[in-house]
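Researcher: Next sequence.
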Amino acid sequence: MARPQIARRRRVALRRAAADGRPSEPASVREVCALPASTPLLVHAGGIAADRALGAIVDALPRLPACHLALVHTDRERAEVRDLVRRAGPAAARVHEVPRPRRLTPAFLAPADLAVYGFEAVADDRPLVPAVLDAYREAGLPVVAGEARAVREHLAGRGPAEFFAPGSVTSFVAAVERARERVPEAPETAQVPPVEAGAPGSWRPLGTGPVRLGLGTANYAGQLSALATAISAARPDVGVELVVAKPPASYRYPADRYLHFPAEHHLDVQLDQARRVLAGYTHLIVDAFRPVLGRLNGDDIAADLPALRRAGIKVALLAHGSEIRHPGAHLRRHAESAFRDAPEELRDRLTAVAERNRRTAEESGLPLFVTTPDLLADVPFATWAPLVIDVDAWAGDRPVLERSRPVVLHAPTSRWTKGTDRLLPRLRELHDRRIIELRLVEGLPYDEMVHLVRDADIVVDQLVMGTYGTFSCEGMAAGKVVVAYLDESVHHAVGVRPPIASATPTTIGNTIESLLDDRHAATVLAAAGPRYVREHHDGRHTAAAFDVFLR
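Model: Next structure:
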């Protein structure tokens, strides 16, 4: 298995450390498995119960006949590991139970060939990045990880990594094969600059109007870029600067400045950013409660606020989902809440984040905007500023429900936040009865998704959150029948009735059959979609929501 030259030198040293016979060092993972160096060894050390895609990784072993898998586990996880060994069937002899050492050292991990972890994203495609990925990198291991934006950003530029759609055996096998076939790379000599000039969008630049608006620094799914464009189109008195803090590999959306994510911790970068913000802006929209003055004051916006107030900058907060959605409250409101499927540790972490950010919003008294109506149940004092999509980019002219066996598309970015594992059995039953043709897709590029949505009859989005998101808007823009779980009360509160058929994982089968029983009514519903998204999600409504703040 080929590896980059830098990593190889480091791994030789780590292997020597693992084999130097010191009694304080535990046996390496390869030694515990009693495998020769020539046997390809995958190691999973990120927690058994937390990795909801681990079953599919085990299921892939028959298609990777040369590979062994080491499952590093705690005493409490022993039963789960043995269940996975049984699940492996004929490949069980290649699954190794490895007790977790007191410390997960590089010397312990380095003799493996690949490190794997198949977790899934949390709400709004913003996963928490497991600490084990850093342990894998410290060991110099190539990583095969579940596809998620935050994970890809975290691993960018830090060694070889391949990504797969969590839960997909085929995708995992392909990712492992790509990782094993990697050609050695020359050592990198060029250093990534900590700050780069960006590729601005179609907004007016800072200084072209009396309102000097800064936006930053998350830009999840390009929503800040879309917001900057919308505000600039609606307000000729506003000039904009958008600053994004991400690893260079994820500089995907327009922005004026890119901060290389780790460089946010460098003192010179932070001081330069503070000077630009405090001296250059009259207004600031803080995205996802992320800090805007680098990481000098901490990892959230709260500690930046005193300096921003002293500079006389008007500040607004913008939230999209998991940074403000309270898991416990969501579970109480919704019988089929997505958080039923979230690992307990993840629920605890998201609870702490949501409570911290709500406290910041309440104590600061700053205007708070949310991009989906359901978040108003968590922060009723907020204002809805609808998410923005390119309506024309998704428009299509294929009629819906003319096929005897209509195509139903489900494309989760994160299975547990969409309710995928609960809704799939019912959709597969309809597929097996030849009532529908089910297309389940994960991890596809934007252009391919546009084609698939245009070719579908029915688009099934989340059935466990209580509102509609980006995928629903894209389906409506394409003129498709959209199915999602809607909490009618929160949408009534903002005065909208989205043309969406509401369903839960329990009712999805009956909902689909009802739509097909009255195809005329379903096509009328689909026809209302483009009008609805153009009215609420083409940017005009969103810019209007910020109008008072920008005065």
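Model: The longest strand covers residues 238-246. Confidence is low (pLDDT under 50) at residues 1-25, 121-127, 183-190.
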